[in-house]
Amino acid sequence: MRRLPLLTVLLGASVLAGLIAGTAEAQVQVCRGTLTGTTVAGNLRVPPGATCKLTRVRVRGDIVVSPRGTLLATGVRVDRDIVSTGARRIVVSGSWIGDDVDARTGGSASVLRTTLGGDIELELLTGPIVVSRNQLGADIEIRGNRGRTEIRRNAVGEDLVCVRNNPAPIGGGNVVGGAKQGQCSGL
Q: Hey, is 20 helix, strand or coil?
């Protein structure tokens, strides 16, 4: 039996590992600027400090917004989640989200006229928050925010929970399948 030199084996393994890593990286599309009327095969990422404007875009994975990033999404379909930590601004309008919108430790967030299979979770944001006319399969959770918060006319499958927000959220006309809790008990 013929033996391959060690260098040839190592080089072949290195090339194969690079191809596998390249395939995994190809499943993440980076968005700086505007995308309209297209489909993203995997996840979409908004890099730090960038603005991504999506109109009528299908994302077959998650949207991840990096610190200081901005997402402006209108008429999008996201198969899984929209998640951010430290984003400057998140706006989702007239869209369909398979699971959650989750924004933590950032600036402002608006979720408007959107259908979600899961939750809206907004925590430790410093700018204005508007959550209005959405249909959710699970909860709205608004926690520890420091900007003006408005929650109006949502159909919530489970609970509407608001705690430790200053100022307290305003709004009304929300219909919930579970309970209205904390600062949202009268909304």
A: helix
